[in-house]
Design brief:
CATH class: Alpha Beta
Structural class: alpha/beta
Shape: globular
Helix content: 40-55%
Strand order of the largest sheet: 2-6-1-7-8
Distance between the termini: 9 Å
CATH superfamily: P-loop containing nucleotide triphosphate hydrolases
Number of domains: 1
CATH architecture: 3-Layer(aba) Sandwich
Number of strands: 8
Largest sheet: 5 strands, parallel
Order of helices and strands: EHEHHEEEHHHEHEHHEH
Strand content: 15-25%
Bound molecules: 2'-deoxycytidine-5'-monophosphate
């Protein structure tokens, strides 16, 4: 074990399973760069909608993708996406984006456009002198970082997840998105083999974070 380890933590799970809150908490606790890959798919979706591209018209998606330049902007401990120099806005959580994102995310070309960008966040974390990277999404432990130091899979009952979205003031059909995200051919949402599975239904954010932190902390022990 090195004195200053650099770790990669992969967190996967369905909509409103608790990924973002726990990822942010872990990034604070261990000084990790946080990458919310759902926000990357959302930003691309918002851009596609702005350009009039439709998931049913692969030609329109391809020509829009060919124009996009992806960049990273580090805000505090968060690795945000920039598309052609533009930061993401609140529109990535809009109802239009919620309804469209799973359809765009199912397109292999869209996933391919984000693959090296996502892997590149490990380099951004090293460059920024972080102790590692915590990346959340649907295929992080299975496709993006299958060799991550720690891989978690969060899940929760549907009614609880719907309740969380309502509490956040969001209109989001979590069941429908999960159905689409789990059934697509390209990198579907699934529990990666060997990942630590946590049912967050009855747990607070702190409890989930503590469980994960207890697994990670020994790596940083002198
Ligand atoms: O985490 P989120 O709910 O903000 O993600 C939005 C959508 O992005 C989700 O419905 C599917 C897609 N997504 C994906 O396909 N792969 C990822 N690694 C992250 C998100």
């Amino acid at each position: 074990m090195s004195v200053n380890p650099f770790i990669i933590v992969a967190i996967d799970g369905g909509a409103a399973s608790g990924k973002s809150s726990t990822s942010r908490a872990l990034s604070e606790r261990f000084n990790l760069l946080h990458a919310d890959t759902g926000s990357y798919y959302r930003a691309i979706t918002a851009e596609m909608l702005r350009r009039g591209a439709s998931p049913g018209d692969i030609g329109s998606v391809r020509s829009a993708l060919a124009d996009l330049r992806l960049g990273t902007r580090i805000e505090g401990r968060s690795a945000e996406i920039e598309i052609s120099g533009r930061a993401t806005g609140d529109d990535i959580r809009s109802r239009e984006v919620n309804d469209a994102v799973s359809h765009f995310a199912a397109i292999p070309e869209v996933r391919a456009a984000l693959l090296s960008f996502q892997r590149g966040q490990a380099g951004a974390a090293r460059k920024g002198a972080f102790a590692g990277l915590v990346m959340e999404g649907r295929d992080i432990g299975s496709v993006i970082f299958p060799d991550a130091d720690f891989r978690f899979f969060l899940h929760a009952d549907t009614s609880e997840r719907e309740r969380r979205r309502v509490k956040q003031g969001q209109e989001d059909r979590v069941t429908e998105r999960d159905r689409l995200d789990s059934s697509r051919k390209a990198s579907p949402l699934s529990r990666p083999e060997g990942a630590i599975s946590i049912d967050t239904t009855q747990l607070t954010i702190e409890e989930v974070t503590d469980r994960m932190a207890a697994v990670i902390a020994p790596r940083f022990a002198a």
